[in-house]
């Protein structure tokens, strides 16, 4: 079986050669054009004329890690706000709408002042103030053209309009026919030049409901939030991206506006455009539309550093649900020389049916329904967590899975992996990397990521070199360096005691 597996690996590598050449991978780096505007905004361009379509990615170098105490969830909330339109998109009458929005804010302040009295608040007065605020919200909605931005994009042939917020970034992306390039330039630049945070209080309720569904009513979500909070004592990675409910309730529109003005400056934005384009036309339009945005002030960096852990941390979350165990080890950021090795360890230990965790816990011992590993819980701008997880099978406890997971970890520390296994890991890593470059949107995402994180998109094209450089000795060294009991946090969901 080993000889057959090795042969298949070699065949796969040779099959990749024409793939690399046909996709022009070796020449992609030289084809990318970086255009930097006077205001600091960077635009990455790559021509691909296979289809008359363009993929657009706007990568904002801001996420939940940039929030301050008491305002968790504001990065995610602003992502929602970015779809609400501008002074010209999404409104029936901007002047009257702004007056109505001011009334919303005024009534919310009155309610908030009473709400913050806590146990001393007058419940009757509080209910009346809430009703007054809701009346103002309803009145402001009369001037709103709901979801006009999304409808315009869809009518013009746009697909895949979406966004996402993480700890280290907020992404906005969609695709359009190539003859709609100027439309994208106009719409996308305008929503970061003239955003109007309309329907703020309604959308805040949507985010709060999202928190209820994904965290407060979800056993896995509850455990993850408690686990992350236990793993971090100082760094903002320990706060939930969706925010704490007690932080979301008092959030004001003006605070979201300040967050935007602080972090959504041109120098914190990278735009990646990949597809059927003519670079000269794109740069001219970018100068016209994106050049309108004034350069902002330089923001303060995240100075907080998570101190070394002093010993193992353990938490339990009681819940009548499928048990789950999480085991996390602190790891360095993506800039560290060991980052690529940690990614390789993820593949060996916890990715797919050939991984060691799956074979040991699911296939052989049959004590788990599912297992896995995640190299970086965050994007990795700052030191993060390497996470293992397992869902115990019926009749088996989380402690049984935990013991077997440690056996897998210790074996990888003490026994070097075979050359065959290392070759297979490298091959899968290269295939996964190259698959990410196959689509216009995937390539635009990765270019924007590299330019934002490393200030150089060319770093993307060194990923294969990093993978190739990994040795069996590196695997053992990294396992022994980071996968220690003292560096470990364990979280598990357990049934409540009778």
Topology:
Elements: H1 2-22, H2 25-31, E1 33-36, E2 42-47, E3 53-60, H3 74-81, H4 94-115, H5 123-141, H6 148-155, E4 159-165, E5 170-177, H7 181-193, H8 200-216, H9 219-231, H10 245-248, H11 253-263, E6 269-275, H12 279-289, E7 313-318, E8 324-331, H13 339-350, H14 356-364, E9 368-374, E10 384-392, H15 398-414, H16 419-436, H17 440-454, H18 463-468, H19 472-482, E11 488-494
Parallel strand pairs: 2-6, 7-11
Antiparallel strand pairs: 1-2, 3-5, 3-6, 4-5, 8-10, 8-11, 9-10
Helix pairs in contact: 1-16, 3-8, 3-11, 4-5, 7-12, 13-19, 14-15, 15-19
Indicate the radius of gyration in whole angstroms.
25 Å
Topology order in helix (H) and strand (E) letters: HHEEEHHHHEEHHHHHEHEEHHEEHHHHHE
- Number of helical stretches of at least 4 residues: 19
Strand order of the largest sheet: 1-2-6-3-5-4
Indicate the CATH architecture of the largest domain: 2-Layer Sandwich
The helix-and-strand class reads: alpha+beta
Show unreliable segments: 1-23
Mean pLDDT: 93
Total strand segments: 11
Quaternary form? single chain
């Amino acid at each position: 079986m080993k000889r057959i597996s090795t042969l298949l690996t070699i065949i796969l590598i040779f099959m990749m050669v024409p793939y690399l050449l046909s996709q022009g991978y070796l020449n992609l780096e030289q084809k990318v054009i970086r255009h930097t505007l006077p205001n600091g905004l960077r635009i990455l361009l790559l021509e691909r004329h296979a289809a008359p379509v363009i993929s657009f990615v706007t990568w904002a170098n801001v996420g939940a890690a940039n929030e301050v105490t008491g305002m968790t969830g504001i990065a995610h909330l602003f992502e929602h706000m970015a779809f609400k339109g501008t002074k010209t998109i999404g409104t029936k009458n901007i002047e009257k709408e702004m007056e109505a929005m001011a009334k919303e804010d005024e009534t919310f302040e009155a309610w908030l002042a009473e709400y913050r009295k806590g146990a001393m608040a007058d419940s009757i007065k509080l209910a009346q103030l809430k009703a007054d605020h809701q009346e103002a919200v309803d009145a402001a909605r009369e001037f709103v053209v709901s979801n006009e931005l999304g409808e315009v994009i869809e009518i013009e042939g746009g697909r895949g309009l979406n966004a996402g917020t993480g700890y280290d970034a907020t992404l906005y992306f969609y695709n359009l026919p190539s003859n709609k390039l100027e439309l994208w330039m106009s719409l996308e630049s305008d929503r970061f030049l003239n955003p109007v945070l309309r329907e703020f209080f309604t959308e805040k309720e949507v985010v709060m409901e999202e928190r209820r569904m994904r965290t407060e009513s979800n056993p896995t979500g509850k455990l993850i939030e408690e686990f992350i909070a236990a793993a971090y004592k100082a760094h903002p990675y320990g706060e939930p991206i969706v925010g704490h409910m007690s932080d979301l309730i008092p959030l004001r529109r003006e605070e979201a506006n300040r967050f935007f003005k602080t972090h959504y400056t041109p120098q914190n934005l990278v735009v990646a455009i990949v597809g059927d384009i003519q670079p000269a036309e794109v740069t001219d339009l970018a100068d016209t539309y994106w050049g309108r945005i004034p350069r902002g002030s330089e923001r303060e960096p995240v100075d907080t550093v998570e101190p070394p852990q002093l010993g193992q941390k353990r938490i339990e979350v009681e819940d009548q649900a499928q048990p789950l165990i999480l085991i996390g080890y602190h790891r360095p950021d993506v800039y560290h020389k060991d980052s690529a090795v940690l990614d390789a360890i993820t593949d060996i230990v916890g990715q797919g049916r050939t991984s060691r965790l799956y074979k040991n816990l699911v296939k052989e011992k049959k004590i788990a329904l599912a297992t896995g590993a995640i190299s970086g819980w965050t994007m990795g701008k700052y030191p993060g967590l390497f996470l293992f997880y397992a869902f115990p099978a019926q009749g088996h406890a989380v402690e049984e899975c935990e013991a077997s997971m440690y056996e897998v970890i210790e074996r990888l520390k003490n026994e070097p992996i075979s050359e065959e296994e290392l070759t297979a890991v490298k091959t899968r890593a290269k295939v996964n990397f190259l698959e990410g470059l196959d689509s216009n949107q995937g390539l635009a995402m990765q270019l924007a990521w590299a330019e934002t994180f490393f200030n150089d998109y060319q770093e993307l094209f060194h990923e294969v070199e990093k993978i190739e450089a990994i040795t069996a000795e590196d695997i053992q060294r990294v396992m022994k360096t980071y996968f220690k009991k003292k560096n470990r946090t364990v979280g598990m969901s357990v049934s409540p005691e009778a």
